[in-house]
Amino acid sequence: MLNLAEKVIELINHQTENADTITQYRKPLVGFASAHDPLFNQMKEIIGPHHLHPTELLPDAQTVISFFLPFAKTIIIANRKNPQIAREWAVAYIETNTLIATISAELKRELTALGINVVTQPATHNFNEQDLSARWSNKSVGFVAGLGTFGINHMLITSSGCGGRFGSTVISAEIPPTPRPTQENCLYLRDSKCQFCVNNCPTGALTVQGLDKHKCYAHLLEVDKQFPDLGLCDICGKCAVGPCASLS
Ligand code: SF4
Ligand code: SF4
């Protein structure tokens, strides 16, 4: 009989393998964090006091489930090669946000049936419009849940790279936390041998020193006009198609 962690992983794998999407995926990654991990308190200092603690979403929170859906390498290569934003990348963004919502809803349905309280979060657009800071950062949650390390591209680089999207769900049951990686996945932070993301940023928003979020987001809104048929498509990802995009 599967334990709770195994059930969660199986559900996420099943939903991804059977997704009704044009987008193809590599195998999902799933990590677990204790809702009482001190890093969740530190996020209020690092990201801002508005960043929610898991217990503000669910008073009896015990575990935060984080999952990463890595895009097929063909999608990453398409966006690397295209001088504009590849349509495949745009479609992957839209479809994966929907898939994350579907997975989150299924997790809620299955776990609630086991008597577990569950709160889901959207994949994106969960941020303050003024200062563009997240109320719930799926990437930061993925870090706490052991899924990867941050690169200078401000992406969470997992063992399968950073070309994909994160979802997360807070639950009232305990699952043992996933150990965090001990090695940097960003090649610049490891040995200063890469600056692909900085050099590939079309706006200069990204430098080794940091990210100008407003300059970046202004570009994402311009890109949105390129795909009027896809819904809100504020994307770019030129900093997420380098050597750390698909590590496996
Ligand atoms: S492209 Fe290179 S420098 Fe930029 S985050 Fe990835 S590994 Fe680090
Ligand atoms: S998303 Fe695009 S504009 Fe924003 S930092 Fe990355 S490469 Fe630069």
Word description of this protein:
With 248 residues, the chain is an alpha+beta fold. The protein has one domain: NADH Oxidase. 37% of the residues lie in helices and 12% in strands. The protein has helices at 4-17, 38-46, 54-57, 73-81, 87-113, 138-144, 187-191, 196-200, 213-224; strands at residues 29-34, 63-70, 118-120, 148-150, 156-158, 164-171. Helix 1 runs antiparallel to helix 5 (87-113) and helix 4 (73-81) packs antiparallel against helix 5. The two termini are 30 Å apart. One iron/sulfur cluster (SF4) binds at residues 151-153, 186-188, 194-197, 242-244.
CATH class: Alpha Beta
Gyration radius (Cα, Å) is: 17 Å
The biggest beta sheet reads:
4 strands, antiparallel
Count of extended strands? 6
* Element pattern in H and E: HEHHEHHEHEEEHHH
Task: Give the % helix.
Answer: 25-40%
CATH architecture: 3-Layer(aba) Sandwich
Remind me, CATH topology? Answer: NADH Oxidase
Query: Tally the helices: what do you get?
Result: 9
**Uncertain ranges:** none
Relative strand content: 5-15%
* Shape category: globular
The secondary-structure class comes to alpha+beta
Span between termini: 30 Å
Number of domain modules = 1
Query: What is the mean pLDDT?
Result: 95
What small molecules accompany the polymer chains?
iron/sulfur cluster
Secondary-structure blueprint of this entry?
Blueprint: H1 4-17, E1 29-34, H2 38-46, H3 54-57, E2 63-70, H4 73-81, H5 87-113, E3 118-120, H6 138-144, E4 148-150, E5 156-158, E6 164-171, H7 187-191, H8 196-200, H9 213-224
Antiparallel strand pairs: 1-2, 2-6, 3-6, 4-5
Helix pairs in contact: 1-5, 4-5
Bound molecules: iron/sulfur cluster (2 copies).
One iron/sulfur cluster (SF4) binds next to α9.
